[in-house]
Amino acid sequence: MSQPLHDGIELIPRPKQNPAALKAALAVVAADRLPEMADGQTKAMAEAIEAASVQPLRSFVAHWAAVVEIERHPATAQAYHRSNYLANHAGTLTECRAHATAVAEIYRAAYTAVNE
Prior knowledge:
single chain; mainly alpha
């Protein structure tokens, strides 16, 4: 899979890549993940301070831009969450790998789409 699954529907336009814009977008498309984002931002800030580098903050923004990219397309979000669920509840290792691969492909495509 080279592109996220799109059914032509976007819940919101693609936000700018900064924490405030991504947080506002996430509040619309996946509000239940806001605590996870806040925790990630806190950890990224601590890592940035400890490493004296902005790279942890860049990685945080890139990750959440990809998450929002998935969530703003209902068909993509549905496929992502379904595959993630099935990977975690698979009856065999082969099934788990197949579903985990689908999750990774969707995430990678979304990451590429927003971080080119």
